[in-house]
Every structure is written in C-alpha cells, then in structure tokens.
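User: Hi! I'm working on a homework problem where we have to compare a predicted structure to a textbook description. Could you give me the structure for the chain below?
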Amino acid sequence: MTNSNSMHDVDHKTETVRAGRRVAALMRHGHFPRPENTASAHLALSLSDEGREQSEAAADVLLGFASANGLVIDPYVESSPLLRAYETATVVVDALKRRTDTAFDITNRDELIERGLGSCANLRFDEIESLLARDPRIGPLPSGWWRIPDFQLPVPGAESLRMAGERTAARIDESLASIDLNEPTSRLRLFVAHAGCLRHAAFVRGVLSLENAVNVSMEFAQIVLFEINSDGQWVQLAGNWKKRITAAQDPKSKAPIDRANQEPAL
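Assistant: Happy to help. Predicted structure tokens:
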C-alpha cells in the first residue's frame, strides 16, 4: 500500500519570495554649459562648477531618501557614458563614500544615453529644420518635433523619445533583476542619465501619462525614486517632476524650446 494518493497528501508549490525591496533612483546629470538652441544630447561636454555643486548636494538627498524609506544605497552605480553624466555619478559617489565609508563602483551603460538624433546630432534646431526642409523626401518637420514621444527624425541613426525610454527602462529592469532575489536587504540603486530618456522610461512603464511625459522635465541633478514591485510594475516612491515653462508661457523667451531646462528632451 502506498500513500502517494492519500487524501492527506498535499501538492505544495514553492514560490520564491523576494525578501528585500528594489528601488531605482533615476538622476539627471548636473548643469553643463549647453550651447544655445542646440540639440546637444551627445556632446562631450563637462559639468560646470554649478553642476558639480548640484551633484555633491545630491548625495545628501539620496541618503535622506534611503533613510526615510528603509533602504541601503547599493554600491553598484550605472551611468550614461556621456561625460556630464559620468562626472555627475563620480561626484555623487565620492560624496557618498566620504559620508558612509562605503566603496562604490560606476559602470557606463550605453542603454542610458540620451535620445539620439543620428546624423543631425549636435546641430542647432534651426539648422536641423532648414537642412531637412530642403530634402524633397521629407519636407517641413512638425511643430515641436523634439518633444513628440513617437517622432523619429527621418535620418540615419535617429531614434524617438519612446525608443530611448524603452531601452533605458529595459536596462533599469535588467539591472535591478540582477540583484539576488533572496537578498534580504532593501536596496536603492542609482542610475545617472538624462531628462529625456529617464522621463520616457517612466512613460513606457506606465508611471507618466503621455501628456505628462511631454509637459514635465527634470531639474539638473534631480532624483526621482521608483520601486519595482514583485510583478515588475514601477511605482513612484519619492521625488517630483519639474513642470515645463515653454516659450509660449515665457514672454522673455523667443525660442521655441524649453528655456527653463535648457534641455528640451534631448
């Protein structure tokens, strides 16, 4: 007689339960000397002195977030490879090390780079519009094209803001998923990148509506925290987006770009 089919036998299914919380700190790089009216997303420009001060101060903001939410700042940091982002990460990490006596490691990830404009990268906005208007296959670009999430410049190598958000969000998900599921510590991992790709990462993960993705931005060195729950959903935990001040709202501005941020999603 066997008891494999006994009424007392129960088929127990084991389920892996993540002990610690996983939080992504999305940080925009600090201030840099952006050329006027230029789509400077991929320029190899360094932080300004102001940008370094902003990045230093961000370390205390991170520590405050971590303390208030019962989190430990993870020693592994990911950064866009663009100089201003890497320098921001370096300043923040050096400040955190002095305050916590913890060693940190920064890894550059191409997935965190800002939206690319391909062969039109780093040109002035008026230059891009003038050049492409001469192409009989393209014609005039739509008004405010640089802020339309699904608009992709019709040139080699260009991508839309949604595309940039997709790759950035995918990298953040992959990075947090690499933390041991059974690790009991609730961890905050820092990602230093750019306003456009970070904002649209939140958009493609359903945290920001389409309208908000277009109408908000991030201050230099600003941090927004998202908890990634057990089913992969992003939930905004702390930090606020910056409401854009457009040229139409700012009578002092003659340019059709976001003067308040000097980086209109690029």
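For your comparison, note the following. Strands lie at 22-28, 72-73, 76-79, 105-108, 187-193, 216-217, 223-228, 234-238, 242-243. Residues 49-68 form the longest helix (20 residues). Good luck with the assignment!
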